[in-house]
Amino acid sequence: MTDFSKLARKITWVLFANQSLASAGFIAAATLNSIVGATLSNHIGWAGVPTAMYLLAGALSTNTKVL
What we know:
Largest sheet: none
Distance between the termini: 50 Å
Number of helices: 2
Order of helices and strands: HH
């Protein structure tokens, strides 16, 4: 019988690294979207709109029911 503990440990670390990088990218995108929104619109009041749309799209994509 093959010992899968070494393989399981490697897979765990790969998944951990992948999730860490994905979370860092999500945070960076959410931060930069506000800066870009304020710059493109020339109005500070619109700064949060790109991030709000980004987060709303992520939330709606998790819904399995059709609206």
